[in-house]
Amino acid sequence: MRYLDDINPEEFSEWFDTVIKEAEIYDYGRYPVKGMGVWMPYGFALRKNIIELIRKEHDSKGHEEILLPLLIPEDLLIKEEEHIRGFRDEVYWVTHGGLDELDVKLALRPTSETSISLMESYWLNSYKQLPKKFYQIVSIFRYETKATRAMIRLREVSTFKEAHTAHSTFEDADRQVREAIEIYSTIFDQLGIPYVISKRPDFDKFAGALYTIAFDTVMPDGKVLQVGTVHHLGQNFSKSLDVKVLQENGENDYVWQTSYGLSDRVIASTISIHGDKRGLILPYIIAPIKVVIIPIYFNDEEKKGVIEYSEEIRNELENCGIRTVIDTRTELTPGKKFYDWELRGVPIRLEIGKREISSKTVVIVTRDELKKKSIAREKICESVRKEGEEIDKRLRERAKKKMEEKISKVEKLELTMEYGERVRGIIEVPWCGSEDCALKIQERTGIRVLGSPIEKPEWIKGKTCPVCGRNAVTSLRLAKTY
Amino acid sequence: MRYLDDINPEEFSEWFDTVIKEAEIYDYGRYPVKGMGVWMPYGFALRKNIIELIRKEHDSKGHEEILLPLLIPEDLLIKEEEHIRGFRDEVYWVTHGGLDELDVKLALRPTSETSISLMESYWLNSYKQLPKKFYQIVSIFRYETKATRAMIRLREVSTFKEAHTAHSTFEDADRQVREAIEIYSTIFDQLGIPYVISKRPDFDKFAGALYTIAFDTVMPDGKVLQVGTVHHLGQNFSKSLDVKVLQENGENDYVWQTSYGLSDRVIASTISIHGDKRGLILPYIIAPIKVVIIPIYFNDEEKKGVIEYSEEIRNELENCGIRTVIDTRTELTPGKKFYDWELRGVPIRLEIGKREISSKTVVIVTRDELKKKSIAREKICESVRKEGEEIDKRLRERAKKKMEEKISKVEKLELTMEYGERVRGIIEVPWCGSEDCALKIQERTGIRVLGSPIEKPEWIKGKTCPVCGRNAVTSLRLAKTY
């Protein structure tokens, strides 16, 4: 199914680069360090609203925000063996302060499991303090050797929300993993980003974790983007950093931990998944400007009344807490203004002319459908809010439907070969559950294994693993990924 | 003049370290990199409220928030000669990514004049875009060789608000300096932080600026803390980074710039200036918890009613947007709870017992005065807000009065010798205006020159410069500083 103005999969990459530049979201490729860009005012405001939404969901579940130092000394970062093995090749090192060489090299944080565990060893004493849930929103750094990409594969990931939790038992950490999945689902649902949740194969879990659960979405070009991960860390870090508490049974024991992260990719996918050929379509809930008013007049006499009426409406909307802008530029035609604000994805446009004044109405146009409708002036706040909610609902449903169309169930590996030409998106195959077969499937198809659903799917009943022929116990998802 | 419970000047340093630790503001000295600490949940919430206050003042004057990369390549940082000369000894350098040595060394931003100017060279084309006001709130890094101090002298300054503006003319940049002074005055007034505003001597201005204006406050130990600076940058950076726009006269010319900054020191001074021997006294306007309710009961029967009534009041306050906590801990006596929340500086305490239920009242106690008063339950939100405003007014006035007492006017340099034993604070001497005499005053007294007031003071009329004997044209402020 294709919608009017849908982005062509082949053109997505160019579309993305153009739209983030022209809508003044993120200046990328001009700052003279590869993989690092600049959040421009409009993009910063969008990012801020998305961060606030993320904050709210974490705060409401008892997470406490903190701020840890950026620099992690080498001897701290290497405490957990698996962890440093996973990150060693992509850590930036500070070696000098002024003209002095430092005694201990300092890493730019690639993530903060080691430093939060160190602080927990001071802060936590008793099971009575548990569960304890911290988070911070910071920049992290990865010396990516692959091609970088604005907001998607960066060397400075400038929007990284990392949560770190501590628990008395394995089971409580497991429960926390489920809570994190719930929190992330709520966040993505509000942004209208569809997703599948997969348990990553062991060979692709977070360095230092017992297991990793990931949220993946499908971008308009059919490639899959990992947008969030949740890790059960077991006692790996608590043992390495000596985070012990007095347990209920009177003994001192190591805590159980989880961590989970979101990044700039949440913003990148919000932009990509809803956009169309005209530019951005921002969900009402996080749009920095919710309403733009375009005054329409044909002479100076009309102008005065139209501007006055527009200002009244703007003030009324602002008083209702609805961020509204009037485009009073005189050098542009209304048509040119429409084009401008459509590019920026403002969800609601109000057109106001002579006729609206006399009929006490305004013309309302939603960014996703671009249909005109007249609404009563006296109910302006209520109507705008209702339209906003409906836009978000439509965006969410449309995105979900599109993604479902891009998930194909396949029983024979040969069929995955069509992938890339015709299918795109995610392929699901029956799977026996062995890591060995998963690796073979990845090798034979050349397509990356995302992992298996967290609940056993119905459709694999009676199906067999395409590698070993044993009965399938679950399915395995495959995709070309970012 | 001394107030009950005032911190002794000699004990201030210890008081500060103890209170930020025990009130769980900022964990300092345990994280294994010197000069870098951790914002704990309560401290983070305080920091967030202060940041929001700072944001609001900048946004309301048309500043746009952005986010620039942390890393500045060496060849960019050294473009402006004076600037790099000022910062060369205190820049941290990233030299390696993974196991590779980088082609170009990357500095951890010590400040962002060079990178914003580079971006302005892309973003700004015409005088019609001017004035343009950007700001960001980020971590900056300085390899301090002096003794570090929590929140006051850090190697990671984790709360740095830096504003950067561009203008068509010298005069408009001058006007912007005045606007910045106004914005900072409003911020400090709201926080009840008293200040003097001084033009720094040329030998102490920001590296790369034409001139620097600074806000200084006096800490409880009598030492002066610089809490904000405003710089007129002239065309120094715009010429080095080639930031040209089409001017109104049709010619391309370099823009004029200003920059101004605030740091963690705003939080440190809010804590220090209002605190007393019992701990923090947070201004109501930025307190993370505005009200704590202590339920008081003597048996289980009383407990039920008291807790219910307390919850009703809490809900009512929360519905009014007033962040309120009930301390329901059973293992602590009310007295111990009082002590706990006084340490944390919660501005308003409500005590609720059997008597309050029957008389439909609550007992209200403000943190600064600790006097009990009974108020009607039905007007709870209104009364709390009013008390909050009055606390802030009292804190502001008390702090201002204390600071005024610590400014001494002196005509002969010999008298400054008493400083440190008796006087403490700021000394003002008449001054002829010559940099040479300022340097001599600094050398002879061994006390740092802060600079001169931005408006010529009345009292210097007929007075002479204590070095050269010429007529004074203004005064010069001296102090022991952090």
TrEMBL record, chains A, B:
Subcellular location(s) of the protein: Cytoplasm
Question: Residue limits of the Aminoacyl-transfer RNA synthetases class-II family profile domain?
Answer: 41-283
Write out the catalysed reaction. tRNA(Pro) + L-proline + ATP = L-prolyl-tRNA(Pro) + AMP + diphosphate
**Could you give a GO molecular-function term held by this entry?**
proline-tRNA ligase activity
Q: Name one GO biological process term.
A: prolyl-tRNA aminoacylation
Under which main EC class is this enzyme filed? ligase
- Gene Ontology CC, one term: aminoacyl-tRNA synthetase multienzyme complex
Q: Could you tell me the superkingdom of the organism this chain comes from?
A: Archaea
Q: What does the UniProt keyword field contain?
A: Aminoacyl-tRNA synthetase, ATP-binding, Cytoplasm, Ligase, Nucleotide-binding, Protein biosynthesis
- The EC number(s) given in the record are 6.1.1.15
Return the SMART domains for the record.
Answer: ProRS-C_1
Similarity-based family: Belongs to the class-II aminoacyl-tRNA synthetase family. ProS type 3 subfamily.
Q: What does this protein do?
A: Catalyzes the attachment of proline to tRNA(Pro) in a two-step reaction: proline is first activated by ATP to form Pro-AMP and then transferred to the acceptor end of tRNA(Pro).
Domain text from the record?
Consists of three domains: the N-terminal catalytic domain, the anticodon-binding domain and the C-terminal extension.
Describe, as the record does, how this protein assembles with itself and its partners. Homodimer.
* Protein name listed in UniProt: Proline--tRNA ligase
Q: Which organism is it from?
A: Fervidicoccus fontis
Give the lineage.
Archaea, Thermoproteota, Thermoprotei, Fervidicoccales, Fervidicoccaceae
Identify the coding gene. proS
